[in-house]
Amino acid sequence: MLITHDTRCALDAVVDLVNTAPDDDGTPDRLPDVAALGDFVRKHEISDVGVLSEFDLSAVRKVRGRFAAIFAEPDARRTAGLINELVAAAGTTPRLTDHDGYDWHVHYFAPGASVADHLAADCGMALAFFVVAGEQERLRRCEAPDCRHAFVDLSRNRSRRYCDSRTCGNRLHVAAYRARRKEAAG
Hints:
Elements: H1 5-18, H2 34-43, H3 54-72, H4 76-89, E1 95-97, E2 105-107, H5 115-132, E3 139-141, E4 150-152, H6 165-185
Antiparallel strand pairs: 1-2, 3-4
Helix pairs in contact: 1-5, 3-4, 3-5, 4-5
């Protein structure tokens, strides 16, 4: 599956956005205020965004919840419906652009769109490409029982199980190893 630079940027943004949500274990919202939203916009180099407000923060949090539902949905038909609703609500206006030193690429958000509509359109289309390619199962949640972060499995054989193999994966492998050693020691 060919993933262009702008699609990869949108995938990184949507995964990071979904992972800012508060967790069931009491982890606080990692998008608590407009300043944090501004940091998110700068980190992901989201272009054509004006002055951010509380309204933008609220709208982005709603879009975040809709993206979380996409990552949680196992059925491709229902996933397609969720993406269609999200992208349509954003008022997509596909257009070619070459800005900030990048070659030609497609922006799906309308000129002057809010940051929430920008994310819904561009990130929604990036996820749509996975459904179209029959690769929806690559939109995953970490299998570590105490994590559940979203990620996009871009491994060749679709075998990635953890959001980060250095933390979640290693932690579980070490725990399993210690349990086996303890059992062997009897």
